[in-house]
Write a structure and sequence with these properties.
2 domains, Rossmann fold, 6-stranded parallel sheet, 34% helix, 10-stranded mixed sheet, single chain, 493 residues, alpha/beta
Amino acid sequence: MRDFKVCYVSAEVSPFASPGSLAYTSKTLPVALKNINQDIRLMMPKYKLINERKYVLREVIRLREVGISLNGSDKMANGKTAFLPNSKVHVYFLSVPEYFDRKGVYADEKTGKFFPDNAERFAFFCKGVLETLKLLYWQPDIIHCSDWTSALIPFYLKTHYKDDEFFQNTRTVLTLHNLEDQGLFPLDEVKNIGIPEEFLDKENVFGNNGKVSLLRGGMHYADVLNTVGESRAKALLSGEEPAHGLEELLQSRKKDFVGITNGADYMEWDPENDKFINTPYDAKNLQLKDENRTALLEELELDEEMKLPLVSIFTDFSEERGGELLLEAMEDLLKVKAHFILMGKGDEKQQKQISGLVKKNADKITWIEDHDKKLAHKIIAGSDIMLVPTPMGEIESYHLNGMRYGTVPVVPDFGAYSDTVVDFSAETGKGNAFAISKFNKTTMLKALRAAIRCYDDKKLFTKVQKNGMRANHSWTNAADKYIKLYEKASKKK
């Protein structure tokens, strides 16, 4: 296996800035690559919300003045560095004060409205990444970009920097997490971000329904492309999953397009070594999981003798995470013989709706509004079943965490999920979950009821628990596949 120098670029990295699902992958994949001896460094914007003292950000003398020029406009940036917590992965934070010294990543925290200059903000960030690499005298073999916010890097490399010797051996990978959010902007905004007019007409490079799609441009110029999940890649190419105007482009690049399934972070999520839970356990002593169940009931001030299955749900009630469907189905869910532990919140209207349900059904549902990392570990270890209402599998892999802890997931088996989810069969004893075949209330309820029927049969339920616990869905497996993708990119001319 070849060793690569990889510059991983992302607008979101957990725990520094985590507004969406991208942040999870941007943390865990680089750590997995570092663990198999890849020379990987992260680059992200320095947002105002990042706590410099908490994460020990340090100045880099070479990066005190990073000059960035775009379309005759000159900006001065500066860079700081830190380590990803509990890892040896270097993170470089690029600060362009007038663009990133704001409360919010993509939108104003007070109004919720997207910043009107987002195209310009992330264009200067992309150009700044390339200038930062030159100042560091670090020539990456691969620049790994993610979604529209870093998709201009492949374009800039093949146009603005095409004659720059520094990048002659650098190739690009673009990971497509979200094809719906393409970085669509009005045509007149491209004048500020260094895209000449001829690129708007030439083979429809950036154009999409009368607007500029930064993701589309990146897809044209990146050396190789991938998405999160082997099944998802097939679904996008076959038309089973909408590509939002990018169908023809994906078809034209299908030889350079692959799917790689996200892994589970077993460094953090491992019941045998979890410092947050009451009693460590594994598949060989699964009976110890009951001690965590009892401890959880005590902490939540519930009846410690409760015989009903505990069903945990983690969501923020956004449409992306299936929150709207969950609220629609909640009254029917509460008729099921189970006690629900819900961690998450929504907007003001949703909060009011959840609060009303909890007051009417205090014996059926426990609601923890704010996400608490320590408590989340305890809930997963103490729950019997986990309901995953999220339609898209690129979200943080809670269902894989559930499997590892013997907490049986009720989860969709389509899209990226289908790479890791096998519907349990009582006849064969095979399977690691109870599958939601279609994303609607009826199938969700059907799958949950099947899981609860199985729960009533201790022998069968233990079988599905152990099936999930013994499966290996680690990030190391995913990292090995990314190395092969980097090898493919490195051979491009």
